[in-house]
Design a protein that fits this description.
heterodimer; A: three-stranded antiparallel beta sheet; 2 helices; B: 350 residues; Peroxisomal Thiolase, Chain A, domain 1; 2 domains; nine-stranded mixed beta sheet; 12 helices; 14 strands
Chain lengths: 135, 350
């Protein structure tokens, strides 16, 4: 699979460190970051401030993937969840290091640094966040 | 004496385990006899999405959690020692530096010296900090070590790592002395582009592991003017459960000095991480005034020795902010040999 090295490289701040931004006009947090706030529109221009999220949140809902997309076949079956981050944004991410029967809606989770995918055996390796149960 | 040493530390051990008896059953061997012979009951297995870079990042993030006053931008150098860097060409250290927010004003290099690349990184950081070129340096030893199916190494080669922040401020353990003993001894190697290492069997013992550790340890005690009884804890490289205990006895250390830093029976040989995880386990319980003796070993071959004294500042470090080695060892899930082959890429999926 060829996701594109340049595209991934541009996303490193988000994927490694949860770099988001916050509209200083209405305090809404955006992840991934946005150029402007869709609520405050031109009032937000110049007021979108970079902020680092904690990487903590809770499971809103989840499912188990048995037939993975290209690049994820080796990992099946794996859980994927919608997670509400403590700062507000919702994201989709894999859950790791947790037996499937222990994953619950509302479970507190925290991020962990993992390999996400790679361009075959010769291409670049892409790293980023997955989530594990918060203990 | 100038206070220079460990400011914080952290570790990561993947939570999957495979028992030696499960591997032995695949090859028609007596698992109980192998466990007794090697002193290894089970070993850690990296999950399919873990490698040396991810283990290094998790270990260093644990170290930073414990030292809440340290800003990652104050870190001037990161050296990652491993024999399983994810790329042959492209540093692991840049991934680690970016993931903790220490880039771009940062020196980075990847080290390779079999199982002692991580302790060599500690020595490099000591040099830079002592010279005043950097405020803090990070030394990491981490591996997802490889073993050919059916090879004796398959019972021991495991995954894990530890990170140490070296500096002069808020030092929890002073590094009083360090030295190395190095010769050209081909006891274990992996040729370029080969997937699995080769080794000299019994040759890895007396002329390699024992000779280098014994000489390094003896010279270190001469330099420090110390004797084994002066130390609270002793850590030796641990390719199996027998070698470190035997070399400790030979040097005059007791099992009581060694056991806190001896993790190999429960997690296997984490290669570059092995002696450093042992040191992390000791720091988990160490008290002010405790003196620690550590000697690593890397095939090829060399040993790095360290004489360390725990300071009063260890009581101020938020050790509880990250899991102890005992907690990481206890948090586990067993896999069978089929799952193990998938996780360690023995099937070489194309």
């Amino acid at each position: 699979m060829k996701e594109g090295v340049a595209r991934f490289w541009r996303q490193i701040p988000e994927r490694y460190n949860f770099m988001a931004n916050k509209c200083e006009s209405c305090d809404r947090v955006y992840f991934p970051p946005r150029e402007s706030c869709p609520y405050c529109r031109r009032k937000s221009i110049g007021k979108m401030k970079k902020t680092k999220l904690s990487g903590k949140g809770e499971v809103v809902t989840y499912t188990i993937v048995h037939i993975g997309p290209e690049g994820f076949e080796e990992q099946t079956p794996y859980p994927i969840a919608i997670i509400k981050l403590d700062e507000g944004p919702y994201i989709t991410a894999q859950i790791v290091d947790c037996p499937f029967d222990q994953i619950k809606i509302g479970m507190k989770v925290e991020s962990t640094f993992r390999k996400i995918q790679q361009d075959g055996h010769t291409g670049a390796i892409y790293y980023g966040y997955k989530f594990k149960q918060r203990k | 004496m100038e206070e220079l040493g460990i400011v914080s530390y952290g570790s990561h051990i993947p939570r999957y385990r495979i028992k030696a008896e499960v591997i032995a059953a695949v090859w028609g061997k007596d698992g109980a006899a192998i466990s007794r012979g090697l002193g290894i009951f089970e070993k850690s297995v990296p999950s399919i999405d873990q490698d040396t870079a991810t283990i290094s990042v998790e270990a260093l993030r644990a170290a930073l959690k414990r030292c809440t006053t340290l800003n990652p931008t104050e870190i001037g150098a990161i050296y990652v020692g491993s024999e399983s860097h994810p790329y042959a060409v492209k540093p692991t250290g840049t991934i680690v530096g970016e993931a903790i927010g220490a880039t771009p004003d940062l020196m980075v290099a990847d080290y390779e010296f079999a199982c002692k690349a991580g302790t060599a990184a500690i020595q490099t950081c000591i040099g830079f900090v002592k010279a005043g070129m950097i405020k803090y340096g990070v030394a990491i030893g981490a591996d997802t070590s490889q073993a050919a199916p059916g090879d004796a190494l398959e019972y021991s080669a495991s995954a894990g790592g530890a990170a140490f922040i070296i500096g002069k401020n808020n030092v929890i353990a002073t590094i009083n002395h360090t030295l190395s003993y190095t010769t050209d001894t081909p006891d274990f190697w992996r040729r370029a582009e080969m997937k699995y290492p080769s080794h000299g069997g019994r040759f890895t013992g007396q002329p390699a592991y024992f000779k280098h550790i014994t000489n390094c340890a003896t010279k270190l005690m001469e330099k420090a003017g110390s004797k084994p009884q002066d130390y609270t804890y002793a850590i030796f490289h641990q390719p199996n459960g027998k070698f470190p205990v035997n070399v400790a006895k030979k040097l005059g250390f007791t099992i009581d000095q060694v056991k806190q830093g001896l993790m190999v029976p429960y997690i296997g040989n984490t290669y570059s991480g092995a002696s450093m995880i042992g040191l992390a386990s000791v720091l988990d319980v160490a008290k002010p005034g405790d003196r620690i003796f550590m000697t690593s070993y890397g095939s090829g071959a060399g040993s790095d020795g360290f004489d360390i004294t725990v300071t009063d500042t260890i009581t101020k470090l938020a050790r509880e902010n990250a899991p102890t080695i005992a907690q990481l060892v206890a948090d586990k899930e067993y896999v069978d040999y089929g799952q193990y082959t998938k996780m360690t890429n023995l099937l070489f999926w194309e």
